[in-house]
Amino acid sequence: MDYDVKGNLKKVLDVLPQGVRLVAISKYHPNEYIMAAYEEGQRIFGESHEQELRQKVETLPDDIQWHFIGHLQTNKVKYIAPYISMIEAVDSLKLLREIDKQASKHERVIDVLLELHIAEEATKYGLTPDDCRQLLEDGTWRELKHVRICGLMMMASNVDDENQIRSEFGICKNLFVEFKSRYFSDCPYFCERSYGMSHDYPIALQEGSTMVRIGTTIFGPRVY
What is the full per-residue pLDDT of the chain (224 aa) written as tens digits? Predict the structure, then answer.
């Protein structure tokens, strides 16, 4: 292994405040790197391709919590429903319903995050704040017994302007407070704000993130 995964992981963990969890983004990285982090106690890993994830699930320890972090097509849900710990990028009621349907087949409740599109980049997926508000106001999600909305997820714009990044994280933080009080006041599990990656997680921590998704800083450049 030509990358100091253990040393890099320790540097990240040392700066995370108590209560903030690390999702180590392991997509396109080999099992060897994942096991190096695992041996240091890391248990949450993020993947975004169903086939790659399935191969890793079959060959890596059973107590790993796998988070699906990429754009998820509804026809792929059935493949990950038996084992996924959290789906972080739910961007439609249609997808929410499909997760509920597939989870019910395995008698599971799958935790999810609603993905917000706040960044100004058109390539980003996610619900606009108004679309997310409308989805929650509609109330259909309350009928879904095999899916549990645990919070919000977003990606900030990939820019050097720290003020813009901070502003976008702040929008997500404010929306979380709004949604918590309006729709989830009696739901202690609605507590997650997943934002912050290798290039901007220090700002995310200052803006109330509870889960940071870090890959390159730990594992190095991806091997495609």
Answer: 667 999 999 999 999 999 999 999 999 999 999 999 999 999 999 999 999 999 999 999 999 999 999 999 999 999 999 999 999 999 999 999 999 999 999 999 999 999 999 987 666 689 999 999 999 999 999 999 999 999 999 999 989 999 999 999 999 999 999 999 999 999 999 999 999 999 999 999 999 999 999 999 999 987 65
Report the C-alpha gap between 198 and 212 in whole angstroms.
Answer: 9
- Name the token pair of 25: 């983004």
Distance from C-alpha of 208 to C-alpha of 224, rounded to nearest angstrom: 32
What amino acid is encoded at 169 in this protein? F
One-letter amino acid of 104: S
Three-state secondary-structure class, residue 72: coil
Q: Which long-range contacts (CB under 8 A, 24 or more apart) does 32-36 make?
A: 32/1, 33/1, 33/3, 33/5, 33/219, 34/60, 34/64, 35/60, 36/1, 36/5, 36/6, 36/9
Cα separation, 86 vs 109, in Å, equals: 10
- Return all residues near 11 (Cβ < 8 A) that are at least 6 apart: 217
* Buried/exposed 144-155: b ≥16 CB within 10 Å, e otherwise: bebbbbbbbbbb
C-alpha to C-alpha distances, 179 to 3, 18, 70, 175, nearest whole angstrom: 41, 24, 23, 6
